[in-house]
Design a protein that fits this description.
Helices cover about 45% and strands about 15% of the residues. The protein has about 400 residues and is an alpha/beta fold. The chain folds into two domains: about 300 residues, no CATH class; about 70 residues, no CATH class. A hairpin with a 2-residue loop joins strand 8 and strand 9.
């Protein structure tokens, strides 16, 4: 099983290097907000799409619920799949600075329940559930649900993929919640999720994972979550085709569908509306962050998908290693650096930093200290190997 603490640590390290300034600017514009809504939608198994995406939108709860829903309904009337064109009104509403959008992109064959090459997912699932049941010291609703889950997992028909996606989704919610707790002082975080087979699996066990994880993982990361109250949107069972908070999750739907449908390796999309979304809403927006993560037998890793209409990469070389410098990101095109000792790596990075300073002077980057600082931070992280090769 992928270690949850490691997974979130990688997410924090990536976000802190590549997106934290934009998030802090976002919070600085909402200094009095202590109640937050996290709305989420997913595009995980669309056959026509090359990727799976977990979409989350952070919304300040600074007006009454019905007013908020009405505002969204008036500007974004339909889900993305029912839309053929992204109007200027929709684009302006989606990218307004009151929202912060996260899109977590991953492969369709992601593997959470793995103990390395050759491990059997079903066996890992059963062992993992047993550990969860045995380590919870109190009796209650969560433990009772886990006992039922443990029994069901013994069946060969048990759908461990749904459980895997439940845990991943709850971890991504935890990441956003912990990020809020670290950077501000939230009192209430309400999670409103789209409903599908994954979210309803075992009567919404995902939300129990989320609440327990926010506080448990907060302790591991030394982030105080004791004052945070978690609330979860529950679908109206009398109207099974609609949920009373559908308007909220429509925002995340637009980002999940767009990023999942964009084949970045071929730079291809299946419909012009995705191009409109990418160019008018996603590209160069400080309140839109697309993180890419991998999860397989080798473990997990994170990176940011930097989407821009204007920025161009600059390549440079030192000590036989080619690097590509993008907006706060350095891509290593050779793995030789990671075969060296720590002192040798340090020497190489120091030379690389000097070369970056020289390039900054030559290309006028002195007026853009943020780019230079982020590049320096990532170079320093290479020394300690706290990030994997990009």
């Amino acid at each position: 099983m992928i270690p949850q603490e490691t997974f979130l640590q990688q997410a924090f390290e990536t976000f802190d290097v590549m997106a934290i300034d934009g998030f802090r600017d976002y919070l600085a514009n909402l200094p009095r907000v202590t109640k937050w809504i996290v709305a989420s939608d997913y595009c995980l198994h669309e056959k026509a799409y090359p990727y799976a995406v977990f979409g989350f939108t952070l919304i300040p709860y600074d007006r009454d619920f019905e007013t908020l829903k009405q505002e969204i309904r008036q500007s974004v009337r339909r889900d993305l799949k029912k839309t053929s064109n992204i109007s200027e009104e929709v684009a302006d509403f989606l990218k307004q600075p009151r929202f912060f959008h996260f899109a977590f992109r991953t492969s369709k064959d992601r593997q959470y329940f793995t103990n390395g090459q050759g491990s059997k997912p079903r066996q890992v699932v059963r062992e993992s559930i047993k550990i969860m049941v045995d380590t919870i010291p109190w009796d209650g609703e969560l433990k009772a649900k886990l006992k039922v889950l443990k029994q069901d997992a013994e069946s060969n028909n048990f759908d461990f993929h749904l459980l895997s996606d439940q845990i991943i989704t709850s971890l991504l919610f935890n990441f956003i919640g912990l990020l809020l707790a670290r950077e501000s002082a939230p009192e209430i975080i309400g999670w409103f999720s789209d409903r599908d087979d994954m979210t309803s699996f075992h009567d919404g066990l995902m939300f129990h994972f989320a609440e327990q994880g926010l506080h448990g993982l907060g302790q591991k990361f030394d982030i105080d979550t004791s004052a945070i109250q978690c609330m979860f949107g529950v679908p109206d069972r009398t109207a099974p085709e609609e949920m009373w908070f559908d308007d909220l999750i429509r925002l995340a739907d637009y980002f999940a569908g767009t990023i999942a449908g964009w084949n970045t390796s071929q730079n291809f999309v299946s419909h012009p509306k995705y191009v409109q979304m990418l160019q008018q809403v996603v590209a160069d927006q400080p309140n839109v962050v697309v993180l890419n993560f991998e999860m397989n037998e080798k473990g997990s890793r994170f990176g940011r998908l930097d989407i821009s209409k204007t920025r161009r990469p600059t390549r440079f070389k030192f000590q036989g290693e080619w690097f590509t410098l993008k907006w706060g990101a350095i891509e290593l095109h050779s793995d030789r650096l990671f075969r060296l000792s720590k002192s040798q790596r340090f020497a190489k990075v120091e030379k690389g930093k000097q070369r970056l300073y020289q390039m900054a002077a030559e290309q006028g980057w002195r007026s853009n200290r943020r780019l230079e600082r982020e590049a320096m931070n990532l170079m320093a992280m290479l020394v300690s190997q706290r990030v994997e090769r990009l």
